Amino acid sequence: MGIRSLTRSEAERRAALLTVERYDVEIDLTALPTGPEVRCVSTITFTCHEPGAETFVDCAARVRGATLNGAALAPGDDGRIPLPALAGHNVLRVESVQSDTAAGPGVHRAVDPADGEVYVWMSFEPDEARFVWACFDQPDLKAPHAFTVTAPAAWTVTSNSGDARVEDLGGSRRWTYPDTPPLSVYNTVVNAGPFHEIRREADGRDLGLYARRSLAEVLDRDADEIFTLTRQGLAFYGEAFAMPFPQRRYDQVFMPEFGGAMENYGCVTWSDAFLRRAEPTPAERELLAIVLLHEMAHMWFGNIVTMRWWDDLWLNEAFAEFACHWAAEGATRYTDAWAGHLASDKLRAYLADQGPATHPIHQPIHDVAQAASIFDSITYPKGASVLQQLMTYVGEDRFRAGMAAYFARHAWGNTSLQDLVNALAEAGGRDLDAWRTAWLERAGTDRFSLERDGESVTLVAGDTPRPQVLAVGAYQRKGGDGEALERTALVRVEVAGSRTPVTGLPSTADLLLVNDDDLTFATTRPDPTTSDAFFGTAAQLPTAISRGVAVSTVWDMLINGEVTAAEAGRCVTAVLSAETSDAVIEPYLDLAANIAELWAPPAERAGLTAAVAAACRALAADPGRRQVALRGLARTATGPEDLAWLREQAGDDVDLRWRALVREAELGGDVAAETALLLEGDPDPDARIRALAVRAAQPDAAAKAEIWQRLAVDREVPVSSVGQIATAFWRPDQDDLLAPYTRLYLEAIPQLHVGGMIPAMGYTRHLLSPYAVDADYLDKAREASVGAPPVVRTTLLERSDAIARMLRARAGAA
Asked: What is the pTM of this model?
């Protein structure tokens, strides 16, 4: 029998039956420098409310021995150990070994190619702790955890509760940590390796940063920024939630071959891809700030107060995604964070919410396997935008008061959606039941437009809209040439139904902008009297957020077949030429290039790409935009002249030289010698990934076969780099070379889930080609995914819908 996924009914029964008093977990990492094994002894002390009843403990590692109250237990064969005839008070002890530390879930052994040093990380969301030690792997059985870790003498170990007692055992050291607060199992962590460590005191806290030693210079470069953001974030959240973070120590550990970041209590684990080898761009710096603040928000939303079951995952993720932008604008220098959100993640959410994989933000979750499928654009960016709307709807002061009451009432416990709604309704003084039902239990996106009849203006919704407050901005041309717009009025409207009168707007406005200030999650259309001029005037709007609302309107019209790629591309390129916000320059460059590459008909692709390349060359004249513009040109260079100019501008910039090589390889250049030379001289310990990207882009059958084997079959590429290599592999105008691999993808679908949630999402999405496919192929892919785990099925549905829309746009079909 395979490893079973915990169902909601099983979790509810087990939570009603048991109270977990504590976990004592002994972990032995001493075999890892030369072998794959992590050895654990998990001792769980718990009470049973029905003595004589039976249940099970989760353990998907190899069990070497298990006892319950001193009596030996038979090991299970489905990732569970049966626990028969429970006493009122119980002590369970399980010895386990996990040897699949190269590609399995829960724990990973990474070897630094720079020096051969070994690092190990653990990451457990949603239910992957069971692959490392025995536990009750569900969020509502919280308990203190005491970790004792034996590791090689040269290693440092990090865990949740910070300050360990360290004993020298000769060739190894034992790290004994104090008890954590009551935590869900998935909030715990152990990371280890011969780290480079930086510590700093700030506002009475002990802050730590860790990375592999080969990245010491990069961590040193970024440490001041990371410490500043950490201090600012802890202060903001402590005040906003009326609850300072309750632990003095707060560590952040940057690990190789890790995907994304994970909010373990007091000890956040990051992919060390966030430590940029080249000087970070403004957008990359802002992304680091947003992710740091997202994971920090989880200390409250997820760790201190935890959802009872995975149907309330949004209580963790949507709130953290909302809070990180709220905190960035309120406490850091990244004051255009919401504009950056609108320019990137929110556009993806609009696309996802109109496709076959959409779902309500809050929905029934049968088992944990299904839960893994909702770590997506609906839960994250749509959820964040809905919460921004909720704060608008009740008012920020009342929203803060509701949050404070929520944490005071439920700290160290578990909650459901209703607990949060009650706290916010009490503080906000308004009934939120209708709001909750409409926004959290209903999928899909509202769409608004305006009707003008003389001096009257009406906000019109396509269907029955959700309760919400949004703004309509009125803009007038200014200056002698009329090449700029200024806002002359902003009217907030509480939507009352399918038609809501809007009062207070000047009748002479040259442009009316629906959802100005981006206060809600809804798509919009320009009003008929100004729609013809809308695409040309988007760049003339005065702020990053107003321009962003216009771009999001154009994007939604593109994905729904209402405008052509050429129209959308010209609009975005024009906005780029006028944009002043660092938060959105890079996302818009990516968007413009994506429109040209992925959405334009083949006959128009080269022209649109050349227009983006020309915009990049123009932007490069501005010193503040130079780095981002040259990166954009490295993606869109149209031929030898662009490439020669780019090489001249790049000089000794290794990052730009790699990017230029990928483009030159795609265009058929002979880059083998230069690739080898650059690889030899690049100090980045992961420079081999850059060389693989160059190889992947080549229009060469042998190169494609080699990369597919290494990427999709052998899985040599770290999960954080799968998208980079796959993007270089799937290139336009290489259909004959790519066609065989579209067939291999169909054959690979049954194995795409291997390795856990993050790899499953990455491989499913990035190995599905946007080229050399047609509608019939996408139907076959969907059919092949019917029996796949939910995370694969959902990811494939979402991605295939996006590609289907691209195919229609390329064909010029609505």
From this structure: 0.96
